[in-house]
C-alpha cells in the first residue's frame, strides 16, 4: 500500500469533496481519482459512495480505513518529531523556579548552558516551589527547580543537593535577653513549601511573633529586611553563609530536616533530549555555582 495513495484517501475522507481535496494536495482531480481507485483495487473494497453531483460519503470499509489511516499518519508524525529531537537539543525550554534559584544558580548557569547548546532558547518563569510544580504538571513549564518532592506519579525528580533552613536575626537588633516574641516574623506567601518546617520551629522555640510581615516568595526581600533589623526570618543557609560567618546575622534555629533542591519534569519527557541536556549540565555545575562559591 502506497502512503501517497493513503494520504490522498485521508484528505478526501476528511473533506468529502474530490475538488477540495485536489486543491489541498495540489494534485489534479484525475490524479486524486486515480489514487482512490488504486487503493480500492488493492483492498478490494469500495471506499466512497457517490451520489448526484459532487457529493460523496464513506462506506463502512471507508470509515474503517479512515480510523486506521489517521492512526498511521499520527504515528508517522510522532516518528518525525522524535527523530528531529534526536538530532540534538533545540527549540524553547521553559524553566520555572523561585527568585532564590534564579539569583543564586540560574543567573550564572544560563550562560554556561547557552554556550554549550546555543540552539536552545531558554525561557524563565518566576514561581515558588509549589507553583513551579503545578506549572510542570500543567505543561506550562518543561522543567522546574523546587524545594519539595511532589508525590505525583507523573513527575520525575533529580536531586541536586540539600541545605538547611535557618531562622536568623540581625546582630544590630539582637539581644539574647529579649524574648523571641518581641521580634516580628518575615514570612513567605501562605501555603509556602517551607510551612511545615516553620511551624515545627515555632513549636520548638515556643515562638509567637508579635507581628507578621508577608514578603511573598522573595527570599532576597526577606534577607535584606532581616539585615536591616526589620524582624527575623527563615532563609536558606547557603545564601546567607557569608553574613553568618561575618556575624551580621545571628542564627536562632537550624531546621533539623534538610531542604532538597530538585529538578522536576514530567516522566513522559524522559526521552526529551533538550530537557535531559539541561539536567545533565545543571547537575554537573550545580555545586560549583552554589552561593558563596567563586564562579566566573
List the helices and strands and how they pair.
Elements: H1 3-15, H2 18-25, H3 29-43, E1 48-50, E2 56-58, H4 60-86, E3 91-97, H5 99-116, E4 120-126, H6 129-137, E5 143-146, E6 155-163, E7 165-170, E8 185-187, H7 195-205, E9 212-214, H8 219-227, E10 232-236, H9 237-245, E11 249-254, E12 259-266, H10 273-285
Explain what the structure shows.
With 296 residues, the chain is α/β, with parallel strands linked by helices. The chain has three domains: 3-86, Winged helix-like DNA-binding domain superfamily/Winged helix DNA-binding domain (Arc Repressor Mutant, subunit A, Orthogonal Bundle); 91-163 and 259-285, Periplasmic binding protein-like II (D-Maltodextrin-Binding Protein, domain 2), CATH 3.40.190; 165-254, D-Maltodextrin-Binding Protein, domain 2 (3-Layer(aba) Sandwich), CATH 3.40.190. It is 45% helix and 22% strand. The protein has ten helices and twelve strands. It has helices at residues 3-15, 18-25, 29-43, 60-86, 99-116, 129-137, 195-205, 219-227, 237-245, 273-285; strands at 48-50, 56-58, 91-97, 120-126, 143-146, 155-163, 165-170, 185-187, 212-214, 232-236, 249-254, 259-266. The strands form three sheets. A five-stranded mixed sheet has the order 4-3-5-12-6, with helices on both faces. A five-stranded mixed sheet has the order 9-8-10-7-11. Strands 1-2 form a two-stranded antiparallel ribbon. Helix 1 packs across helix 4 (60-86). The model has no long low-confidence stretch (mean pLDDT 87). It comes from Lysinibacillus composti. Residues 1-59 form the HTH lysR-type domain.
Amino acid at each position: 500500500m502506497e502512503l501517497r495513495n493513503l494520504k490522498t484517501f485521508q484528505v478526501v475522507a476528511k473533506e468529502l469533496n474530490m475538488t477540495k481535496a485536489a486543491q489541498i494536495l495540489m494534485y489534479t482531480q484525475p490524479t486524486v481519482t486515480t489514487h482512490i481507485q488504486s487503493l480500492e483495487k488493492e483492498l478490494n473494497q469500495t471506499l466512497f459512495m457517490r451520489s448526484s453531483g459532487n457529493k460523496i460519503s464513506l462506506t463502512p470499509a471507508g470509515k474503517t480505513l479512515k480510523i486506521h489511516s489517521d492512526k498511521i499518519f499520527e504515528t508517522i508524525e510522532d516518528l518525525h518529531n522524535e527523530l528531529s529531537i534526536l538530532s540534538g537539543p533545540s527549540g524553547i525550554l521553559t524553566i520555572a523556579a523561585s527568585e532564590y534559584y534564579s539569583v543564586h544558580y540560574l543567573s550564572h548557569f544560563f550562560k554556561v548552558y547557552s554556550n554549550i547548546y546555543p540552539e536552545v532558547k531558554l525561557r524563565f518563569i518566576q514561581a515558588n516551589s509549589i507553583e513551579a510544580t503545578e506549572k510542570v504538571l500543567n505543561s506550562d513549564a518543561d522543567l522546574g527547580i523546587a524545594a519539595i518532592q511532589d508525590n505525583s506519579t507523573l513527575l520525575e525528580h533529580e536531586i541536586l543537593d540539600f541545605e538547611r533552613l535557618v531562622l536568623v536575626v540581625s546582630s544590630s537588633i539582637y539581644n539574647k535577653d529579649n524574648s523571641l516574641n518581641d521580634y516580628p516574623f518575615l514570612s513567605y506567601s501562605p501555603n509556602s513549601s517551607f510551612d511545615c518546617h516553620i511551624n515545627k520551629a515555632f513549636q520548638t522555640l515556643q515562638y509567637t511573633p508579635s507581628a507578621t510581615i508577608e514578603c511573598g516568595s522573595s527570599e532576597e526581600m526577606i534577607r535584606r529586611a532581616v539585615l536591616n533589623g526589620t524582624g527575623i526570618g527563615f532563609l536558606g543557609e547557603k545564601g546567607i553563609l557569608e553574613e553568618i560567618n561575618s556575624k551580621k546575622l545571628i542564627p536562632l534555629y537550624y531546621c533539623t530536616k534538610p531542604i532538597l533542591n530538585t529538578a522536576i519534569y514530567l516522566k513522559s519527557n524522559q526521552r526529551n533530549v533538550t530537557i535531559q541536556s539541561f539536567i545533565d549540565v545543571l547537575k554537573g555545575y550545580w555545586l560549583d555555582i552554589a552561593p558563596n562559591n567563586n564562579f566566573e
